[in-house]
Amino acid sequence: MSADKIVQRKAFRSLRQNLSQEEIANLSLAIEQQFKVFKKQLRLKKVALYWPFDQEVDAKLLIPELWQDQIETYLPRLRPDQSLEFALYSADTRCQANRFGIPEPKDPAKLASLETLDLLLIPLLAFDLQGHRLGMGAGFYDRTLSKIATHPKRALFLGLAYEIQKADSLCTDPWDIRLDAVMTEKHIYYFNEQGPL
Ligand code: ADP
Ligand code: MG
């Protein structure tokens, strides 16, 4: 792993740490408003989200409106191979904290085959306008997304971020998987020529 990535990770982590709980709540709410409009453009059946950690955009806010539209929501669980699997999260799902203290749906849980997800909402520390993503440094999403990256009907890879997480240019490694788009409180950035769909 490049030393530059470590430097960038530190800088963007501290930017995010400096947000107050009130700022996070307001920015997450603005993202939720954008998402409300955005989701109508897609025919969604299965959406993977995440339980926010370390001041990430609060993706949990999106869950009630997805349920209202009869869209299934899935949350990540850590797998022994250091990738993620996505378990159904519904109103009666019980959760249990993983080794990072992040709640995960408990067994018995219905798992989604990765290639059947329509939309994957992905947390990040920083992104750039090439669709590069800097994560917390464990590579969980790279390992997971690499399994379906070339699948013709795979989910849209949508990062959720604050504007302050936009970088001029990020260092990358060969295993990094690019995002298709990033939604912030102000914009939706698309990185592929074919646009939103
Ligand atoms: P992040 O994406 O969280 O910012 P990195 O891209 O630096 O973190 O990846 C962290 C580690 O995960 C790297 O050291 C790399 O070896 C490992 N990794 C990433 N993707 C894969 C993969 N597809 N297979 C095996 N290891 C991977
Ligand atoms: Mg990476």
Record the strand order, biggest sheet. Answer: 6-3-2-1-7-10-11-12
Strand content: 15-25%
Give the distinct bound molecules: adenosine-5'-diphosphate, magnesium ion
CATH fold name:
Rossmann fold
Architecture per CATH nomenclature, i.e. the level-2 architecture: 3-Layer(aba) Sandwich
Helix content: 10-25%
Mean pLDDT: 96
**N-to-C terminal Cα separation, in Å?**
33 Å
Instruction: State Rg.
Output: 16 Å
Q: State the name of the first-level CATH class.
A: Alpha Beta
What does this structure look like?
This protein is α/β, with parallel strands linked by helices. It has one domain (3-190): Rossmann fold (3-Layer(aba) Sandwich). Helix content is 23%, strand content 21%. The chain is built from 4 helices and 12 strands. Strands 6-3-2-1-7-10-11-12 form an 8-stranded mixed β-sheet. A two-stranded antiparallel sheet has the order 4-5. The protein has a two-stranded antiparallel sheet with strand order 8-9. The longest helix is centred in the N-terminal third of the chain and has 18 residues, at 21-38. The N and C termini lie far apart (33 Å). The protein binds adenosine-5'-diphosphate and magnesium ion. Magnesium ion binds next to loops.
